[in-house]
Amino acid sequence: MSEKGQKVGKMFIVGFGPGSEDHITSRAKKVIEESNVIVGYTTYIELVRDLIRGKKIIYTGMTEEVDRAKKAIDIAKKGNTVVVISSGDAGIYGMAGLIFQVLKEDGWRPSYGLEVEVVPGVTALSAVGSLLGAPLMHDFASISLSDLLTPWEVILKRVEAAAQADFVIALYNPKSGRRTWQIVETQKMIRKYREGSTPVGIVKSAYRDGQNIIITDLDHMLDFPIGMLTTIIIGNSSTFTYEELMITPRGYHNKYELSMKKMALEVPLAVPE
Amino acid sequence: MSEKGQKVGKMFIVGFGPGSEDHITSRAKKVIEESNVIVGYTTYIELVRDLIRGKKIIYTGMTEEVDRAKKAIDIAKKGNTVVVISSGDAGIYGMAGLIFQVLKEDGWRPSYGLEVEVVPGVTALSAVGSLLGAPLMHDFASISLSDLLTPWEVILKRVEAAAQADFVIALYNPKSGRRTWQIVETQKMIRKYREGSTPVGIVKSAYRDGQNIIITDLDHMLDFPIGMLTTIIIGNSSTFTYEELMITPRGYHNKYELSMKKMALEVPLAVPE
Question: pTM of the entire structure?
Answer without folding.
Answer: 0.91
